[in-house]
Design a protein that fits this description.
It contains 10 helices and 15 strands. By secondary structure, the protein is α/β, with parallel strands linked by helices.
Length: 345
């Protein structure tokens, strides 16, 4: 295979990020776009791509090597099934599906057809996160005991002009927390149970604006995430990491991973350890583990091309993406019932 020809289905906010990322990824090109919205015409023209209003017409006419699905959540599985039935590998945006039932449909169809599915948990392709995962796995922190993730940001009022974002299908748990859950699973380990409280005290929408989450990991560590889309704060991965060029980069740390031998803060990748005797009366020193910056969306596309060539297995398979979705949906259940929800193994 020479250059991998990808089609983009859904040319909204993240679809445009994929178009930019493809432009800086060697060996891949976007051959066409499908989007029924008339506003997509300007985007297709700006990037010099052919536009189809219907994704099935695109699939049949263009026969792409792979497809990026960047549609609203409820369309991920129906569109992915159309690709899988034609034998076309997909990079489907997160969440893999809007329900666990839909996720299972895709999982079964892809397995039967032998077509790879990559879920767009782009943070797994971030060099900072990959370095953090290696440090944890190599034991640089000793035994992981506690993790704290801050996902505290202020979405501007205009963000909520789109009606669904104020409904039960919107809110920071389903839109944003899923990234934290996937990152925790990837870096720190599998989640076994979830407790949560949510609040809509500030925005007063039907959906939460703030949440506090307690997670127990399979390796025995405990993790907390505090989440709010109404907090004027520099402490979230989104603004601290610089992943999005449209957000103001704060350079603050948002994630704190603590073990028996040391602790790591992210995204700065600062490793704190005792150089000599251990204990809170002793000096504990910081060392930078920083890595060269990279674009996780471009790295994700490089990986997708390798998945299409069957050279690499999907870093986030449909099964893996389903586990992240299950843990995220469990947060909603835990907050609703006030009970701790245990996840199926
Ligand atoms: N990984 C990330 O960093 C990230 C960031 C933002 C959004 N997302 C995910 O990407 C998806 C899209 O989010 P967004 O913010 O870009 O939404 P958006 O509303 O900006 O864009 C969605 C696009 O899909 C198009 N669309 C609707 N129906 C379609 C159809 N039948 N065929 C083709 N196109 C269709 C819409 O016209 C729109 O242009 C969501 O699932 C979201 O969770 C991922």
């Amino acid at each position: 295979m020479g250059t991998i020809r990808l089609a983009l289905i859904g040319a909204g906010g993240i679809g445009r990020a994929h178009l930019h990322a493809a432009a800086e990824t060697p060996g891949v090109s976007i051959c066409a776009i499908a989007d029924p919205n008339p506003a997509a015409r300007a985007i297709a023209d700006a990037f010099g791509k052919k536009l189809y209003p219907d994704h099935r017409a695109l699939l049949d006419a263009e026969q792409p090597d792979g497809v990026i699905i960047a549609t609203p959540n409820a369309l991920h599985v129906p569109v992915a099934l159309d690709c899988v039935s034609r034998g076309v590998p997909v990079l489907v945006e997160k969440p893999v599906a809007d329900t666990m039932e839909a996720a299972r449909l895709l999982l079964d169809a892809a397995r039967k057809a032998g077509v790879p599915v990559l879920v767009g948990h782009h943070r797994r392709h971030n060099r900072i996160i990959r370095r953090a995962r290696r440090l944890v796995q190599e034991g640089a922190l000793g035994r992981l005991v506690a993790v704290s993730a801050l996902a505290l940001f202020l979405k501007p009022d205009g963000y909520f002009d789109v009606a669904w974002r104020k409904s039960a299908a919107g809110g920071p748990v389903l839109i944003n927390l899923i990234h934290e859950i996937d990152m925790l699973r990837f870096v720190c380990g599998e989640i076994v149970s979830v407790g949560a409280a949510t609040s809509n005290e500030v925005r007063r929408f039907a959906v939460e604006d703030t949440a506090s989450i307690i997670l127990r990991l399979e390796n025995g560590a405990l993790a907390t995430v505090i989440l709010s889309d109404t907090a004027a704060s520099p402490w979230s991965w989104d603004v601290a990491s610089g992943e999005s060029s449209t957000l103001y980069k704060t350079n603050a740390d948002s994630h704190f991973l603590c073990g028996t031998e040391g602790s790591l803060t992210l995204p700065s990748l600062t490793l704190w350890r005792y150089p000599g005797a251990r204990g809170w009366g002793q000096p504990i020193l910081a060392e930078s583990m920083a890595v060269a910056p990279g674009n996780p969306y471009a790295e994700q596309l490089r990986h997708f091309a390798a998945v299409i060539r069957r050279e690499e297995a999907p870093l986030t398979s449909a099964d893996d993406g389903s586990r992240t979705l299950a843990a995220t949906l469990a947060v909603k259940r835990a907050a609703g019932s006030g009970e701790i929800v245990t996840l199926a193994g």
